[in-house]
Amino acid sequence: MSGGARAAIHLAALQHNLQQVRSAAPGARVMAVIKANGYGHGIVRVARALNQADAFAVACLDEAAVLRQAGFAHPIVLLEGVSEPAELTVAADNRLDMVVHSAEQIALLSSARLSKPVSVWLKVDTGMHRLGFAPEQARAAWQRLHDCAAVARPLRLLTHLANADRPDDDTTTEQLALFEQVTGDLAAQRSVANSAAILGWPQSHCDWVRPGIMLYGASPFDDQTGAAQGLRPAMTLSTRLIAVNAHKRGEAIGYGGTWTCPEDMPVGVAAIGYGDGYPRHAGNGTPVLVNGERAPLIGRVSMDMLCIDLRGQPRARPGDPVTLWGEGLPVEEIARAAGTISYELLCRVGGRVQFEEA
Ligand SMILES: *Cc1c(COP(=O)(O)O)cnc(C)c1O
Predict the structure, then answer these.
(1) What's the CA gap between 1 and 20, in Å, rounded?
(2) Distant-in-sequence, close-in-space partners of 306: CB < 8 Å, separation ≥ 6
(3) For residues 196 and 138, what is the distance between their CA atoms, to the nearest angstrom?
(4) Ligand 1 atom closest to Cα of 211?
(5) Catalytic: 248?
(6) pTM for the full model?
(7) CB of residue 195 inside a 6 A radius of ligand 1
(8) 21 pocket-lining for ligand 1 (C-beta < 6 Å)
(9) pLDDT of res. 2
(10) Which of 85, 84, 83, 55 lies closest to 67, judged by CA?
(11) Would residue 116 show up in a list of annotated catalytic residues for this protein?
(12) Ligand 1 centre from 280 Cα, in Å?
């Protein structure tokens, strides 16, 4: 039996958020980023809801295979490409497009015999310094790919921004200028923008945008919520109270006794914890909704349970609904309280949590 934690996935919210991407970047095609199990929402249900996207992007072959097996015929881009001959064969057989970011990958393609050439996005490292060819290597890489029988033409170009979530940071302008300097004269489709760039850097939109987090309704900017940008949360995480206890002044709550009752008071126990993906680092005062109204979390989050100060809700009873984030309570706020970002919280929901479409 499940512990009662549920993640309602709002399909209409996903569709609404895709529309928001389209209105923010009206000239661009949309590569919906659904890696990490659709940011924790369930990759197949997210792909179904975002059926109108022009392409899907995932991190690895297994994620792409799940989509092909589920019958999706869209272009699917492997954001990290492949690293072994067998993977390349599977990618080609499944019509997967791949990012090429290293000399090893070009060597792999050069020696491959494929059923059909693969479509390639050449990744240039303009300043993220994670994956991609250094600017001075990019032209040689382009030429080698261009000469490679296993690679379909035309080639495409891609880069990734490191600081697009900071409106006042010069890095983005510098990355865009460098990308233009290195590739400006090449006739190729380009992709640069993640969610933050879609919302904050219109000059980065190019031919294809790559929204992730905004599709799920959360803001890429750490001082804003998705709602302020017209987005709707795609996940509501909830559970129920399994106990409401009357505690005396001076009694300490939970492991380590990190919170002490300042007066005689009701304390609720909700059936969700870090074993379900709720962050253990959410401290005293982190809001939850009990019967739709805010109440503060108290004490340490444990594996299966967390405790709630119910002084503001003297009538709360076992069985009453508790919302951890989603409709009515932005996940960004919980992420801040836990010292992390919404991305991590959404990706980590799992285990016993029962997913349902709403
Ligand atoms: C994950 C990812 C994205 C999406 O980023 P968001 O901030 O979630 O919009 C876009 N491009 C690449 C290369 C990524 O790895």
Answers:
(1) 39
(2) 269, 270, 272, 273, 278, 282, 288, 297, 299
(3) 25
(4) 9
(5) no
(6) 0.97
(7) yes
(8) no
(9) 54
(10) 55
(11) no
(12) 26
Cβ–ligand 1 contact at 229 (below 6 Å): no
Q: How far apart are CA 188 and CA 344, in angstroms?
A: 34
Over the chain (358 residues), the average pLDDT of each successive run of 10 is 84 98 98 98 98 98 98 98 96 97 98 94 98 98 97 97 95 98 96 98 98 98 94 98 98 97 98 97 97 98 98 97 98 97 97 95
Query: Which residues face 267 on adjacent strands?
Result: 245, 309
CB count within 10 Å of CB 202 equals 14
Q: Show the tokens assigned to 58.
A: 């995932």
Ligand 1 pocket check for 41: Cβ under 6 Å: no
Measured CA to CA, the distance from residue 239 to residue 329 in angstroms comes to 14
Strand duo 55-58 + 29-33: pairing: parallel
- The one-letter amino acid at 302: S
Q: Out of 39, 123, 255, 343, pick the active-site residue.
A: 255
- What's the rounded Cα separation, in Å, for the pair 287 and 296? 5
Output the pLDDT for position 267.
98
